[in-house]
Amino acid sequence: MDATTLKGLQAPLKTQYREDPTSAVVTLKADGELDGTGVACRVQTATALAEAGLHPATGGDGTQLCSGDMLLEALVACAGVTLRAVATSLGLEVSGRVHAEGDLDFRGTLGVAKDAPVGFRDIRLTFDLKSSASADELATLVKLTERYCVVLQTLRSAPPTEVELRTSA
User: Fold this and answer.
1) Between the N and C ends of the chain, which has fewer C-beta atoms within 10 Å?
2) For the CA atoms of the chain, what is the radius of gyration?
3) In 10 A of CB 42, how many CB atoms?
4) Mean pLDDT, all residues of the chain
């Protein structure tokens, strides 16, 4: 896709969102099924059923997806798509890889140490790019990617998150 095609696809959406800001608010959803036979949760993705389970550092056998890995994968996917969209918009040719890694202290999630955090304490996002673009153009590309990457901005700003319990017999 080139910049003209991308701008052509996005222009009517941008106009709509400027004229009717409420139409820009979309509720994304995910659902999981607890199967009752193990420590797992099945999540339906757009293309497949994913089964998440315990990480080996918490007693899992490594055959199921780890939610922490899935979070990093979502970050990589979002950052990669955002970078490609920004590069396309700027007319920059780039290829390469996106890498994310994060540090977890599993003492927190296992309740071994109350002072150990539950969750990632550090996350690193790296772009290994091949491009003939200048250093300034690449710096702009990364800056705009950071600004517009939904998952990265969500992790950085930690929006209010509600938890609700519903029961049935």
Assistant:
1) C
2) 20
3) 15
4) 94
